[in-house]
Amino acid sequence: xxxxxxxxxxxxxxxxxxxxxxxxxxxxxxxxxxxxxxxxxxxxxxxxxxxxxxxxxxxxxxxxxxxxxxxxxxxxxxxxxxxxxxxxxxxxxxxxxxxxxxxxxxxxxxxxxxxxxxxxxxxxxx
Length: 126
Fold this sequence. Notes:
Elements: E1 3-5, E2 9-14, H1 17-28, E3 31-33, E4 50-53, E5 60-65, E6 78-81, H2 84-93, E7 102-103, E8 109-114, E9 120-125
Parallel strand pairs: 2-5, 6-9
Antiparallel strand pairs: 1-6, 3-4, 4-5, 7-8, 8-9
């Protein structure tokens, strides 16, 4: 798998968590993981959430039901790729709409995508 996560966990909200989890599994090759007590900070995972990721030993992406009473998260989830150019090519070939690869002022290469529910996600060079 060419992707690994940048943080302990990534939290994304969705109108349909199941459908969005299926999208990440199809487009990124992620797997779905059951949540057991003590795993992935399970006490903080809202009911109806789906947990996916590249590897169970890596951080997880928690896809939770969208909360109408809360504003969208202010942070952009970041997924690291071992080779950002290869990740870009594979994702675009798999039907993901991606902005062009950019270089930031710190010599970091990245690109942004919007997932099936229009959540902004950054893919960054590892």
